[in-house]
Amino acid sequence: MREGRVSATTAGAGVWVLAAGALVLIGLPLAGLLMRAPWSTLLHDVTAPSALQALRLSLACSLGALALCLVLGVPLAWVLARSSVPGLGLVRAVVLVPMVLPPVVGGAALLFAFGRRGVLPLRLPFTTAGAVVAEAFVALPFLVLATEAGLLGLDRRYEEAARVLGAGPWSRFVHVTLPQVAPAVAAGAALSWARALGEFGATITFAGNLPGRTQTLPLAVYVALQTDRDAALALSVLLLAVSVAVIAGLRGRWTWR
Amino acid sequence: MLAAASLSTGLREYAQARVSFGGSQQLALSVEEGADVDVIVTADQRTMDGLAAHGRVERPAVVASNTLAIAVAPGNPKGVRGLADLARPDVVVVLAHPSVPAGKYAADVLGRAGVQVHPKSLELDVESAVQKVVLGEADAAIVYATDARARAVGDVAIPSAQNIVTRYVAAVVKTSSHRAAARRYVARLPARLRAAGFSAPDASSDTG
């Protein structure tokens, strides 16, 4: 790791220029947002009841989506990494589809699956549970990818030792495999949670837009952008702050130094 | 060119202009932020007045009018006959968000009829509200009469005593680099929209 850093600092100027370009691409729009943000009324705007309601709903939905991703995604990652069932390549490709699918198309697809006339009519549209499912749909690939990579990089001798010592499959998974793969799961969880928090297209298409029920923070920002631009910018800054804080916290702790 | 979402039934097939459809407020925001467009058509006067007051557009002109109707799922399974039915708890209603013209008009119409509706969703533009009915998620939505007629949905008329006339306003954007062509385009819009089923710019409420 240290050697890698040394060679990076001595790399040609071209690398630095390109890296700076990447930073500009991401950083400049964020800086623009911060420059235009109405700082004098920011506190007032983000503590307005409607803003707090959207924030609460966003946190609840994104955490619900993360829970769903963990419960379903970790086992799926395990199957992908460990089993040798034919057709796994296809399953892996299908799992990644929500990453490349336009979210609005994902929302429509969710309607065809779980809508009133869907394959499995669960009465999810226009409900908070629907917003959670929409967010989980787009967030799941991030968790599965990261967890599967972690599982593939594991030293399996520990599991083998546990097996020899008489631990059953479930016990081995919970007490040996899971602790070892925890950093990868945490990294995946951070990414999928962040994706869920920022979710817009699938939510509006599948769950609709109703304050207190399905109007998450990104939807509230969109609506506010049409009526009260300062409030929209204030909400955007709030969303930005929450995500940066959590990503920074999680990454620092579990993955990067 | 930017045009209100509800004009998509009338303008989509005219290939001479590249048209982007959306909620009027969103379109106005694009023009305010300096989007490279020649013409903007909003679904209400108020949004256009805001642009005109900021000096973003040339003199606006009314190019068509419309009325509202209730779009219902094909076959009207819930038996919706009028605005009063939208208050029934078994009827899933979606409306456009009050920040876009269609949502404001819908609220006006419901207010005039004295009907209290609990919509399941306030969609971001009227097209999305129609879509929810087309996909069968909603039983009814208050939309423009042209949308209700043109799409694969049933439409229930709103009596003219309860209805309102909505007007589409077009203007040439001042930063356009093709202002002469844009003016000619705006001048042709009333005839085009009339042919597509919209009412004349000066229509009064009894035509609905």
CATH architecture field of the largest domain in chain B:
3-Layer(aba) Sandwich
Number of strands of chain A: 0
Radius of gyration of chain A: 21 Å
Determine the N-to-C terminus distance of chain A: 11 Å
Q: Name the chain pair with the biggest interface and residue counts per chain.
A: A-B, 20 and 20 residues
Mean pLDDT of chain A: 90
User: What is the annotated CATH architecture of chain A?
Assistant: Orthogonal Bundle
Mean pLDDT of chain B: 90
Report the count of strand segments of chain B.
9
Strand proportion of chain B: 15-25%
- Radius of gyration of chain B in whole Å, from Cα? 17 Å
Spans where pLDDT lies below 50 across 5 or more residues of chain B: none
How is the CATH topology of the largest domain in chain B named? D-Maltodextrin-Binding Protein, domain 2
Assembly context of the chains: heterodimer
Strand content of chain A: under 5%
Shape of chain A: globular
Largest sheet of chain A: none
The CATH first-level class of chain A comes to Mainly Alpha
What does this structure look like?
The complex is a heterodimer of chains A (257) and B (208). With 257 residues, chain A is an all-alpha fold. Chain A has helices at 2-9, 13-36, 39-46, 49-82, 88-100, 103-114, 128-152, 157-164, 169-197, 201-206, 217-227, 229-254. In chain A, helix 11 (217-227) packs antiparallel against helix 12. In chain B, strands 1, 2, 3, 4, 5, 6, 7, 8 and 9 form a nine-stranded mixed beta sheet that branches. Chain B folds into two domains: 2-64 and 167-207, 3-Layer(aba) Sandwich (D-Maltodextrin-Binding Protein, domain 2); 67-157, 3-Layer(aba) Sandwich (D-Maltodextrin-Binding Protein, domain 2), CATH 3.40.190.10. Chain B has helices spanning 8-11, 24-32, 45-53, 101-113, 126-134, 145-150, 179-195; strands at residues 2-4, 20-22, 39-42, 61-72, 93-96, 121-123, 140-144, 154-157, 165-172. Chain B is built from seven helices and nine strands, in the order E-H-E-H-E-H-E-E-H-E-H-E-H-E-E-H. The longest helix of chain B has 17 residues, at 179-195. In chain B, strand 5 (93-96), helix 4 (101-113) and strand 6 (121-123) form a beta-alpha-beta unit. In chain B, 32% of the residues lie in helices and 22% in strands.
